[in-house]
Amino acid sequence: MTSLVKPKHPNIALAVCGYSKVLDIISNKWTALIIYAMEDGSIRYGEMARRIEGISKKMLTQTLRKLERDGLVQRHITPSVPPIVEYSLTPLGESLLQPMRELRQWGRENYVRVEAARVNFDLTYSDD
Questions:
Q1: What pLDDT is attached to residue 2?
Q2: Which interval of the chain is the signal sequence (predicted)?
């Protein structure tokens, strides 16, 4: 018989933890920046490449394909010469915007404290 009692400590094994699986999808810095680029609606590939500083075309293409495979992004091709390729968030991708906005806000409010903690740590343990 299966117990309905919740364990005292949650299972955080990578193989079964849903949270770790989601983090695997969104934890890449390019993924977050690409999602932010589509925050206001569809965007052409070239415009996205210009807006995301430092991303290579290869990395942009790989990350967009991964997000498309995960059901977070959809690609729309308009036949023309050259073809117009636009990307937008799917409803599933749009559902990520609110938690990502909250994380971005947390970073704006707290990253200075993280940097100060690093400096303090480095000063404390620099002799080790």
A1: 56
A2: none
> Is residue 77 a part of any domain in this protein?
yes
Query: For position 65, which CATH number holds?
Result: 1.10.10.10
Q: Is 63 exposed, middle or buried (0-12, 13-18, 19+ CB in 10 A)?
A: buried
The reply to whether 3 falls in a domain is no
Alpha-carbon distance 75 to 85, whole Å?
7
What is the spatial distance between Cα 105 and Cα 30, in angstroms, rounded to a whole number? 18
* Residue span of the structural domain in which 27 resides: 18-95
- Closest by CA to 45, choosing from 92, 82, 91, is 82
Rg (CA), the chain: 20
In whole angstroms, give the CA distance from residue 91 to residue 49: 23
Distance CA 60, CA 95 (A): 21
122 found inside a domain: no
- Three-class secondary structure of residue 123 per DSSP: helix
Domain tally, the chain:
1
pLDDT in tens, 57-80: 999 999 999 999 999 999 999 999
